[in-house]
């Protein structure tokens, strides 16, 4: 404070300068941490160590009606009680139900 000749020491300016410095430093640190997080999440992809075994096989809806309950439980990750809760008709005819539904016209608001 007051190192320059003729400069008066003003404690409020010093506090304001330190506050601005801390805010700018914290902003730089936050940006650095964001980059660090992105690099940490993307590193397995860049190094080729990504485990894609979780992707699994995609089964079309049409084929689901031909699957046994055991296969369906394994594919959908269901317990036996959850499988019982599924409606038989919905499970077997889901694609037919979707095809039968008629699209609704958009509702247009009436303006006065």
Shape: elongated
The total beta strand count reads 0
Largest sheet: none
Number of domain units: 2
As a percent range, the share of helical residues equals 55-70%
Q: Into which percentage range does the β-strand content fall?
A: under 5%
End-to-end CA span: 68 Å
SS-derived structural category = mainly alpha
**Number of helical elements:** 5
Query: What sequence of helices (H) and strands (E) makes up the elements?
Result: HHHHH
- The average pLDDT is 79
Gyration radius over CA: 31 Å
- Name the poorly predicted regions: none
Quick structural summary:
With 112 residues, the chain is mostly helical.
Report on the architecture of this protein.
- The chain is mainly alpha-helical and 112 residues long.
- It folds into two domains: 8-50; 61-100, no CATH class.
- The protein has five helices and no strands.
- The chain has helices at residues 11-47, 61-64, 69-76, 80-85, 88-100.
- The radius of gyration is 31 Å and the shape is elongated.
- The model has no long low-confidence stretch (mean pLDDT 79).
Could you name the key traits of this structure?
112 residues, mainly alpha, elongated, 5 helices
């Amino acid at each position: 404070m007051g190192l320059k000749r003729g400069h008066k020491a003003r404690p409020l300016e010093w506090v304001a300068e330190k506050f601005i410095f801390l805010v700018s430093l914290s902003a730089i640190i936050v940006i650095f941490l964001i980059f660090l997080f992105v690099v940490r999440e993307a590193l397995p992809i860049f190094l080729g160590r990504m485990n894609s075994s979780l992707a699994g096989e995609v089964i079309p809806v049409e084929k689901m009606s031909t699957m046994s309950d055991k296969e369906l439980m394994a594919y959908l990750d269901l317990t036996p009680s959850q499988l019982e809760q599924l409606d038989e008709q919905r499970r077997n005819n889901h694609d037919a139900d979707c095809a039968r539904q008629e699209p609704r016209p958009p509702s247009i608001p009436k303006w006065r």
